[in-house]
Fold:
Amino acid sequence: MIEERLRQAAERLGQTLRANPAIGNYLAAQARLEADLDACGLLDELASRQAKLRQRQQAGPLTEEDLEDLRQVQRRVLDHPLIAAYQQAQQELLTLLPQVNDRISQLLGLDYAGVARPTSCCG
Amino acid sequence: MSTSGQATSHQVLSEDVEQAIQGFAQALAETPVFQAWEQAAWALRQDETAQTTFQQLATLDRQLRPLIMLGALDIGQRQQLLQLRDTYFNMPVVAAYGRAEDELRTLCQEANAAVAAAAGLDLTAWCGSGCCG
Structure:
């Protein structure tokens, strides 16, 4: 059980991050993506094609037709506006959040993400 | 708490984020668990026997690493490595550091869970090489 002062400071940090435009954009883009059946279906199709090709690859080289099929699905994914917006929002967080971690780590003298990361994330 | 230097990375962080980070780091650093960890880390650094034994273990591990990866250690080498590991990790100052580190990890995970709940995402998931190393 964490001390009240630390809990409040943690909540304040979380609320401040939540108010940051980059995080707001990401959460909104994620919600729009998850609510769109077409976009989700496209991502599922891509994942499914990739898995099938990985399996086929174990039996032998892929054909040019296999690769072109995959490229077509990849192009449709990249062209989908909601997916593109989500990826753009992801890129902004990949810039911001490591900097937040670096600053916390600098102040504490340890790798904050390395210590604070949930230990069961690999199942 | 370390206060040395002004990292260029924080120049792109807004003032409110910077202040919230400082408040969070200060609150964490002033907990008994964090201070106990700092104390244990300092004691470990000061203990010459522990430092020497660690260097011996690191050297032996490095020398035997190719054989370890091939599963080709003989019984003598395996015993040598295990004995040195036991010696190191059973040293009181090392065991104390291990306990302090475990408690700090638990505290940081709880604190981070509170940050994540308020933020709507877990910032640690966006940092480093991921949970699988």
